[in-house]
UniProtKB/TrEMBL annotation:
Keyword terms, alphabetized: Cell membrane, Membrane, Transmembrane, Transmembrane helix, Transport
Family assignment from sequence similarity: Belongs to the binding-protein-dependent transport system permease family.
Transmembrane segments: 12-31, 98-121, 133-160, 172-190, 231-251, 271-298
Record keyword Coiled coil present: no
Originating organism: Falsiroseomonas stagni DSM 19981
The UniProt record lists the keyword Ribonucleoprotein: no
Membrane topology, record value: Multi-pass membrane protein
One Gene Ontology term, aspect cellular component: plasma membrane
Main location per the UniProt record: membrane
ABC transmembrane type-1 domain span: 94-295
GO terms for MF: dipeptide transmembrane transporter activity
Protein name per UniProt: Peptide/nickel transport system permease protein
Length: 313
């Protein structure tokens, strides 16, 4: 178990370093932040002074090692726009993003998994075809298109809900639905496929032939074995709670981390962009680590693999 955790933590650390390096290099290649922030009409002396003040006049490799060393000390930099710490700006936006993504995650899991199980248990029936038709529609329609359609129907035509902002809980309904529908469709498809694969296994037929009630076969044998691929998708959704809301927050003018990322990229606010990407990477690798641990709980064979390998050796 210690070796397992050690290998996963090492992989997570390497992933975070790669994300930090990639973000640093791409942002430096995408344009001069000093010129963008100061404006095209700024005198060259002012632009040079800005570069010197933020260390942008130094070689890129020196900037990288300085930035990486600052991260190790807990310093994620300051915003070039207002001089505040980047982590403070991002932390202020996290509650707004979670106010959308957590209810949306509940919709994804609460709607997608039961729909996939129901479709698998009624394979090739009208229920199966209806669920899959809705799942394909929900999966293929881009989130920004779905969001605009919901605004057109429920905000513009019917006037039931506001089209954007964060003034009340009613403002969160449309973005939550927009985020939840696509994820529920993905979960429904994966859950159905996993259930159908498990239901076709010999041990399912053997349990049924022995007279085990079908409900007990489904709950005791099929669902636990079909849970592993489903847990993988849910883990990915948990890891993308922050990154997955970028488009939806922009469509609905929701003041979350995703919208802050869009604004920071447009303004070349390097520290803020790097802080958000680091937060997304840490969320994702933490989610993947939890999923790996859940694998061992759901499938005892995975827990016993090191022991069997040691015995064979």
């Amino acid at each position: 178990m210690i070796r397992f955790l050690g290998s996963r933590l090492l992989r997570a650390a390497i992933t975070i370093v790669m994300v930090v390096t990639f973000a640093f290099v791409v942002l430096r290649l995408s344009g001069d932040p000093a010129q963008i922030i100061m404006g095209a009409d700024a005198p060259p002396e002012a632009v040079d002074a800005f570069r010197a003040a933020w260390g942008l006049d130094r070689p890129v490799w020196i900037q990288y090692f300085h930035y990486f060393g600052a991260i190790l000390q807990g310093d994620l930099g300051r915003s070039m726009r207002d001089g505040r710490d980047a982590i403070v700006l991002v932390a202020e936006r996290i509650p707004a993003t979670l106010a959308l993504t957590l209810p949306a995650l509940a919709i994804k899991v609460g709607l997608g998994i039961p729909a996939g199980i129901t479709a698998a248990l009624h394979r090739n029936s009208f229920i199966d075809r209806a669920v899959m038709m809705l799942a394909v529609a929900g999966f293929t329609v881009p989130s920004f298109v779905l969001g605009l359609l919901l605004v057109l129907v429920f905000a513009v035509q019917l006037g039931w809900l506001p089209s954007g902002g964060q003034d009340s809980w009613r403002h969160a309904i449309l973005p939550i639905i927009t985020l939840g529908i696509g994820g529920a469709a993905v979960l429904a498809r994966f859950t159905r496929s996993a259930m159908l694969e498990v239901l076709g296994q010999p041990y399912i037929r053997t349990a049924s032939a022995k007279g085990v009630p079908w409900r007990a076969v489904v709950w005791g044998h099929a669902l636990p074995n079909a849970a592993i691929p489903t847990v993988t998708i849910v883990g990915f959704m948990v890891g993308s709670l922050i990154a997955g809301a970028v488009v939806v927050e922009s469509v609905f003018s929701w003041p979350g981390v995703g919208r802050l990322l869009v604004v920071a990229v447009a303004n070349r606010d390097l520290a803020v962009v790097q802080c958000i990407l680091l937060l997304v990477a840490m969320t994702m690798v933490t989610s993947n680590l939890i999923v790996d641990l859940l694998y061992g709980l759901l499938d005892p064979r995975l827990r016993n693999q090191p022991k069997r390998a040691a015995g064979i050796a």
